[in-house]
Amino acid sequence: VIEIISPEQSFSSLSEKAVAYLKAGVSRVWIVDPRAKQITIFYPDAPPAIKKGDDEISDILLPDLTLTPRQIFAKARLS
């Protein structure tokens, strides 16, 4: 699941939603914050990871995919 924070939303409200998704069996939840240009990744068995700039995002669920927040925000024209 990927959630993008809109101007009307807060990170805390979406993080509560992320925890609910995980409890329902979702494997990963990304919260994308366009203002902070960062992505927080929630896992069922580990603390959330905050990725920004050139931090690599890779996951065993998508072994052939490696991205950075910078690439994602540039592609979305939010850089």
TrEMBL record:
Q: Which CDD domains does this one have? A: DUF820-like
Record-level Gene Ontology MF annotations: endonuclease activity
Alphabetized, the UniProt keywords read:
Endonuclease, Hydrolase, Nuclease
Ranges for domain Putative restriction endonuclease: 1-68
Q: Which InterPro entries match?
A: Nuclease_put_TT1808 (IPR012296), Restrct_endonuc-II-like (IPR011335), Uma2 (IPR008538)
Pfam families linked to this entry: Uma2
Output the superkingdom of the source species: Bacteria
Provide the protein name: Uma2 family endonuclease
- The protein's organism comes out as Microcystis viridis Mv_BB_P_19951000_S68D
